[in-house]
Amino acid sequence: MCDEYPGRVRADDGALLSYNVRVPPESSTRVRGVCLFVNGLSNACFQLEPLADDACARGGRVVVTYDMRGHGMSEDPNDYDSVTATNFARDAWTVVDAARLALSASDADADADADADVTVVTYSFGTRVGLEMIRQRPDAVTCFVSILGSPNRILSGLMPHAAARCVVWASRRLGVRASTAVVGASLRCASTFPYLSHVIGRATGYLKSTYGDFARPFFKSLNRLDAETWVRCVWDGHETGALDVLRTLKSRGVYVGIIAGDKDFAAPLRDMREWAAWANYYVMLPNCAHDGLRSHTREIVSLAREILAGAEKRK
């Protein structure tokens, strides 16, 4: 069983980021590296917990999970102008560095070298954040895993680009306060009527998991989601992308694993198929939507295990 060390560290804007460090059982004095799990927009890290537990149980790496600003146990941003994928990537590195320091200062049997390599496992919007992490420290990450995520602009899978441009333009015309009020009301409605929200999600094909597996914990987590953070992430995510980073990873020696779903709205299906050329390990799961971490938990845990094992063999 893994030992756990919760902690908090301040982001550049002063907001506290909540994180948790798992130490592998029966670790030697030094471990091979750090495995960071990056959750998606609208999510605390609960969907990634099974993968984090599995990665820790296999040993060899310190496993770190955390909540983005405006999510879960972390505080809301103090500077909303800094809510971008680029700055969220800086937050992620802040967490990694703090976790290393906290571990070395604790009575844990394991320690992670300051220059130990980093594996980044991402879900949904976390894929954008993880790729921005690599842009910032290109030599630190040796393995990158994207699960039901997209390096493309954030709305590209939901609607044509022209329609997405109109939606974002209209939202900006309304202004951040009005847009935040609309999103906040929608979040409250979804969390107040989770069963109805789940039924709509199933009927539209956006969800494939059962109510108990996904909807109950997810819609409960929406009570904590900061609406303005969501609005600003969508604005930034529409205007920027990180496809340029993904295209270069494999050629630079980073082991890339991509787990996609043929019913996922993270990106158009044709785009998801193109990513296979830039990955060492690529799987398109059938009948898997954006909630695949709950509807296809066993399959995704097994696939992630294979990806991490493949990265180790490459060293």
Topology:
Blueprint: E1 3-10, E2 16-23, E3 30-38, H1 49-57, E4 61-66, H2 85-105, E5 111-123, H3 126-136, E6 141-147, H4 161-174, H5 176-192, H6 194-203, H7 211-221, H8 227-239, H9 243-249, E7 255-261, H10 269-274, E8 281-285, H11 292-295, H12 297-314
Parallel strand pairs: 3-4, 3-5, 5-6, 6-7, 7-8
Antiparallel strand pairs: 1-2, 2-4
Helix pairs in contact: 1-12, 2-3, 5-8, 6-7
Describe this structure in words.
The chain is built from 12 helices and 8 strands. It has helices spanning 49-57, 85-105, 126-136, 161-174, 176-192, 194-203, 211-221, 227-239, 243-249, 269-274, 292-295, 297-314; strands spanning 3-10, 16-23, 30-38, 61-66, 111-123, 141-147, 255-261, 281-285. It is α/β, with parallel strands linked by helices and 315 residues long. Helix 1 (49-57) crosses helix 12, helix 2 (85-105) crosses helix 3 and helix 5 (176-192) crosses helix 8. The chain has a single domain, classed as Alpha/Beta hydrolase fold, catalytic domain (Rossmann fold, 3-Layer(aba) Sandwich).
Helical/strand content category = alpha/beta
CATH topology descriptor: Rossmann fold
Distinct helical segment count: 12
- The CATH H-level superfamily is Alpha/Beta hydrolase fold, catalytic domain
Q: How many strands, what sense, and barrel or not for the largest sheet?
A: 8 strands, mixed
Question: What oligomeric state do these chains adopt?
Answer: single chain
CATH C-level class? Alpha Beta
Element-level helix/strand string: EEEHEHEHEHHHHHHEHEHH
* Order of strands in the sheet with most strands: 1-2-4-3-5-6-7-8
Compute the gyration radius: what is it?
19 Å
The appropriate CATH architecture is 3-Layer(aba) Sandwich
